[in-house]
Design goal:
By secondary structure, the chain is of the alpha+beta class. The protein folds into two domains: about 160 residues, no CATH class; about 160 residues, Aminopeptidase. It has 16 helices and six strands. Bound molecules: coenzyme A. Coenzyme A binds next to helix 14 and helix 16.
Amino acid sequence: MTSLPTTDQLRTRISGAALQRAFDYFAVQQPDRADFATAAARISGDAAALARVGQVVAALRSGMGRLLTQEQASLPATFDPQDPNEPVEARFFHAVAFAATLPDTLAFHRTRAIPDTASRAILADLGRHLRIFERTFGHTGLHVQNWLALHLRGVIYDFGRLQAELERLDVPAAELRAAGVPTVTGSVVAGIHIPDSGPLRPAEVDASLARVRPFLARHFPELPPVSVARCTSWLLDEQLCDLVPDSNIARFCARWHPIGAPTDGDWSVRNFVFRRPDADPADLVASTRLERAVLDHWRSGGHLHQRSGWLKLSGAVPS
Ligand SMILES: CC(C)(COP(=O)(O)OP(=O)(O)OC[C@H]1O[C@@H](n2cnc3c(N)ncnc32)[C@H](O)[C@@H]1OP(=O)(O)O)[C@@H](O)C(=O)NCCC(=O)NCCS
């Protein structure tokens, strides 16, 4: 890999044509562009902030393509997302640092012969999360830096309806055996994620899952064949089959064989369903079938769970 960008190179990466190119790859929408650009200009003119951007770039480069633990990969928060008075350069700090990292990510993708369309497809998740932030908190910013660090480190890709992350199975052997998972602790699996990008139609899920194995075999040939997918989500809570029967969600949930015990999923549901992660459920209003069912469930003393599950990946592997 090339040497670390100098201060001047960092400035170049977050201004002018390079910043516009980052907006393009990240699919940054108009409502976020002005704040993103203001933050980049302020950081460019502040030596200490630019040095912090340089540290993020260095951390992401050193983790490029590597399967790190959460602790190893963690990028600390720079602001309180609830506070609309946080300065724009704090709210967009990581977005700017990711723009400064983009040339390294694209260079890594090219070494793996990952096509530009695939780079764009996964990196567009950044623009999606900028919009989700505003839906959630009412002002602009980006607080899921650890999620998007996976994208910038080249360990997650887009497969149409789903995304798949290269991850190590960190589940104890006894739990894997009990769940019938046909692989061992520490092996590489495809961690499946479900972007907020419209309905979760079963045919699109099938098509996405079928693309994962061939893609990983082609672009990560040094890995043993990745034949197991794992998903950890509120969408795998079996109660959803009763809460929203005959739905895309119920059908998605039914695909997975559960692993281990469920954990608390109420926060996840407030976040992913109501986009009000810290709200009191008494203040939430339902406008969809799922929301009505969840609010009734909570009011009657129930809870939602987060669940892990596995399935076998099919899909022809290129010879
Ligand atoms: C997963 C997801 C795509 C499913 O959407 P979907 O395919 O429309 O779901 P279904 O068709 O099964 O929906 C059944 C009902 O629940 C509603 N519903 C589904 N997901 C909803 C959500 N996130 N918020 C509010 N209501 C939702 C639907 O509108 C529908 O109700 P309606 O008939 O009154 O319109 C959607 O929930 C989503 O985008 N979630 C955010 C991303 C996410 O949760 N990722 C996983 C993170 S671990």
